[in-house]
Amino acid sequence: MSEYEIWKFLHICMFVFWLGTDMGVMICSKKSTDTSLSIPARFQLLEIALVIELLPRVMWVMALPLGIHLSKSLGYIDPSLITIAAMWVFVVAWLVINVGGAANLEKPWGQQLSKINRFVVLLWVA
Predict the structure, then answer these.
(1) What is the DSSP letter of 41?
(2) Distance between alpha carbon 75 and the CA centroid of its chain, in Å?
(3) What is the pLDDT of residues 5-30, one digit of tens each?
(4) Which of 25, 44, 76, 109 is placed for a possible disulfide with 71 were both Cys, Cβ 3.0 to 4.6 Å?
(5) Where are the domains of the chain?
(6) Which pLDDT band, with edges at 50, 70 and 90, does 126 fall under?
(7) Which residues have C-beta within 8 Å of that of residue 72, sequence separation ≥ 6?
């Protein structure tokens, strides 16, 4: 298997895990509004959605390095080793901020990480 095929496979897996789990979150959230369910069942659906929601967060971050490596293997870009290393440092830091904030929202430092994550996303999307 060539380097391109590996990065292509990982990039496709990233997309599948991002979209599939995001749909799971949407379905759980939508079902939690069903008034025929008991309140505890509705809260359980929301708790499940919060757990599932961690995977799309990870995949959103992983789109950057997987896309860079895929583009590099196709010859579209030629980033230096320093650029690749800096990207991976950024990605690991972003994963810690993103997942740490989402998994610890009930704690003050988790809320702070979530605010930092929003700032990083705004910078990234802008």
Answers:
(1) H
(2) 26
(3) 999 999 999 999 999 999 999 999 99
(4) 76
(5) 3-125
(6) confident
(7) 78, 79
